[in-house]
């Protein structure tokens, strides 16, 4: 596994500047718990961390993956949220991962990584398009760039973008929540 210092650092291109204060749209995403989650009806504090895609040990990453700023690091980020899950739970903060991968693909990841929270599938890019989130294309896939949102009820109150290094993101989120 590459160290963060070996990876290209993503730059803030301003493509998330419009998100602060927005309400999450009336979009229902399927989760790895076989539930449908209506993002417009979220209550309390919620963290939505968007990531490009989780790799699998049996599937080679796309050519050039490691050279795309911000692409690599989905598994370390997810595992860091897993490792801090008890703290989020004590603070009554709900955590969801979000990717454009299918729910069936995401279920393998949840099981393999022992993730205690749900991953939501934006496979058809409905949420990505409605929030106008930044994306990139590789191997005929449109993937969401790494972004973390903190929402109170369904209002976006904090945006982390770009997120780097990915594995430090949960600590940054917790620090922000504890100060606010």
Tell me about this structure.
By secondary structure, the protein is an alpha+beta fold. Helices cover 24% and strands 24% of the residues. It is built from five helices and nine strands, in the order E-E-E-H-H-E-H-E-H-E-E-E-E-H. The chain has helices spanning 74-83, 85-90, 103-113, 126-130, 169-179; strands spanning 28-31, 36-38, 45-50, 93-99, 118-121, 135-138, 141-144, 147-152, 155-160. The strands form two sheets. It has a seven-stranded mixed β-sheet with strand order 2-1-5-4-3-8-9. A two-stranded antiparallel ribbon has the order 6-7. The longest helix is centred in the middle third of the chain and has 11 residues, at 103-113. The termini are far apart. The model has no long low-confidence stretch (mean pLDDT 94).
What percent of residues adopt helix (DSSP H or I)? 10-25%
Compute the average pLDDT: 94
Strand content: 15-25%
Distance between the termini: 34 Å
Number of strands: 9
Radius of gyration: 15 Å
Brief characterization of the structure:
The protein is an alpha+beta fold.
Give a topology summary.
Blueprint: E1 28-31, E2 36-38, E3 45-50, H1 74-83, H2 85-90, E4 93-99, H3 103-113, E5 118-121, H4 126-130, E6 135-138, E7 141-144, E8 147-152, E9 155-160, H5 169-179
Parallel strand pairs: 3-4, 4-5
Antiparallel strand pairs: 1-2, 1-5, 3-8, 6-7, 8-9
Key structural traits:
24% helix; 180 residues; two-stranded antiparallel sheet; seven-stranded mixed sheet; 9 strands; alpha+beta
């Amino acid at each position: 596994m590459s160290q963060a210092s070996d990876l290209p650092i993503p730059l803030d291109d301003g493509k998330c500047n419009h998100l602060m204060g927005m309400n999450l749209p009336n979009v229902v995403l399927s989760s790895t718990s076989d539930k449908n989650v209506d993002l417009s009806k979220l209550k309390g504090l919620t963290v939505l961390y968007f990531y490009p895609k989780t790799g699998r040990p049996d599937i080679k990453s796309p050519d050039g993956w490691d050279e795309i700023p911000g692409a690599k690091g989905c598994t370390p980020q997810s595992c860091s949220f897993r490792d801090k899950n008890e703290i989020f739970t004590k603070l009554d903060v709900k955590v969801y991962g979000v990717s454009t991968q299918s729910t069936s693909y995401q279920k393998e990841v949840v099981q393999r990584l022992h993730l205690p929270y749900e991953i939501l599938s934006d496979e058809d890019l409905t949420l990505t398009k409605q929030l106008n989130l930044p994306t990139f294309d590789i191997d005929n896939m449109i993937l969401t760039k790494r972004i973390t949102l903190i929402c109170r009820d369904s209002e976006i109150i904090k945006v982390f973008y770009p997120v780097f290094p990915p594995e430090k993101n949960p600590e940054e989120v917790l620090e922000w929540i504890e100060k606010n």
